[in-house]
């Protein structure tokens, strides 16, 4: 227990009731994130689902994991991982989300496959006969292929 | 056997070695889960049809599982408090409660997956379901790993040994909770 001494000041400020209070805040936010999308408003859904997820993650990280009581470099290390995640997203997203860019264009079969999945066309010539019955199910339940 | 000297504190790091290690693990886990979730988000935005696939996930089950994990996180942090006070028995009981929460989570997940798989929503059905099972599956593996470590730590805590490890396993468990906090809206809410 000797290593607890250095953080005891911070931890001892909070009794069990503090953590129970944070817990009920988390439950309240959970209910809001569940009810929000019921209104069918896109911006409200984004805020209540993802905005509240960030708030909940903050509450858990600070109050349960006590990241604020760790040395500053730990926060920087975790932040660096998050920045790497954003870099990955920024680097890879254009390839996934756009059809063309500077000096590149997606092959036609990708768009054909997308249209097939979306049910806009009834078949994809390149795929042959193996694919068939399952495609076009409204929820994609029966799709057998490894697209 | 004589006691083996173990360096439990690195003065240069300014914190106990075990706590430093768990934060390193978390930093590396962020990259793993971040990659999966980032990929999911970009595909979800690029393919409108994914909204139709996502409509098949059961929001109420996701809600219950989030409640279960948040409750288990509360038990974990209360176990840490008990360990701080030197109350190993209470810490052990709370760690067992946390493990129970993990077990309930997995049982609900098993029920949910068996329903989905029996209705044709398998990991090979399409890319959406591949992401769904991969993301939730990796998370479930972390839950299982956390439960195993929790039971071992509870065994020590009961004997008032290695009480500082109660905090370490707790920090890991809270991280698993945080990952689920983001999986819940991605897989169950955004439809």
The average pLDDT value of chain B, as a whole number, equals 92
Number of strands of chain B: 2
Q: Roughly how many Å apart are the termini of chain A?
A: 54 Å
Oligomer: heterodimer
Q: What is the CATH architecture descriptor of chain B?
A: Up-down Bundle
Number of domains of chain A: 2
Q: Strand order of the main beta sheet of chain B, please?
A: 1-2
Mean pLDDT score of chain A: 76
Query: And the CATH topology of chain B?
Result: Four Helix Bundle (Hemerythrin (Met), subunit A)
> From N to C, what is the helix and strand string of chain B?
EEHHHHHH
Unreliably modeled segments of chain A: 1-12, 124-147
Percent range of helical residues of chain B: over 70%
User: Number of helical runs of chain A?
Assistant: 5
**CATH uppermost class of chain B:** Mainly Alpha
CATH superfamily of chain B: Cytochrome c oxidase, subunit III, four-helix bundle
Radius of gyration of chain A from CA coordinates:
24 Å
Strand content of chain B: under 5%
